[in-house]
Structures are given as C-alpha cells and as structure tokens.
C-alpha cells in the first residue's frame, strides 16, 4: 500500500513540474484550449490584416515576439470594438507599430557616482 501512495505522489509531483515548465504533455485540455485560442487569434488577424501587413507582423514575431503579441492584442481589441474600417494595410500596421513602440519605450539613464580618492598627485599634500 505504501508503494501505491508513493507512486501516486511521484506522478502528482511530476505533473506539477511539467505544468511549471510548460510541458505540452502536462495537460491535454490546456493544450487544446491554447490551440483553439491561437486559431481564433489567427482567424481574426486574417480578417483584419491584408497580406503584406500579415507578412510584416509574422516577420516581427520572429525577431520580437513580445512586441508582435502586443500589436496582435491591440489589433484584436480594435476589431472587437469596431474601431477598424476595413483591412489594415502595411502602412497602417507600421503606424500601429510606431504607436506601440512609443508606449513601450524604455528610457534608460546612466548615473555616474564619482568618488573622491586620495591620490598622491594632488597638490595639497605638501
């Protein structure tokens, strides 16, 4: 009986580890739900974007997947609220990309902390 409990604990822990690391075999229902969501997203984007804009967005997804995901979410939200009048062209997508870039732009600052160090070359050590 202890062996059965131990094996059940091992299986449960293995499932938790797989779920934490995003293993696709962890939960088939979750995998199916993600696949359906991806299909819905692709369908909406196919309806909203023309072919050149869609190609540009897929190229962006290869280089910067987080920015492409943000643009996709923005386009889907605009489509759901009816703010898009027709298909978005490549130039329209470029404008949206610039807008998203400005919103997510990180400003970096560099601060120099100069410390005064006693140096033998200074003139006040007569």
From TrEMBL:
Keyword Phosphoprotein assigned to the entry: answer is: yes
- InterPro entries in the record, alphabetically? PDCD5-like, PDCD5-like_sf
Among the GO molecular function terms of this UniProt record, one is: DNA binding
- Keywords of the record: Acetylation, Apoptosis, Phosphoprotein
What Gene Ontology biological process does one annotation of this record name?
apoptotic process
Q: Which SUPFAM superfamilies match?
A: Double-stranded DNA-binding domain
Superkingdom of origin organism: Eukaryota
Q: What parts of the sequence cross the membrane?
A: none
Which cellular component appears as one GO term in the record?
Answer: nucleus
Task: Tell whether Phosphoprotein is among the UniProt keywords.
Answer: yes
Q: What family does this belong to? A: Belongs to the PDCD5 family.
Q: Which PANTHER family match?
A: PROGRAMMED CELL DEATH PROTEIN 5
Query: In UniProt terms, what function does this protein have?
Result: May function in the process of apoptosis.
Name under which the protein is recorded: Programmed cell death protein 5
Gene that this polypeptide is encoded by: Pdcd5
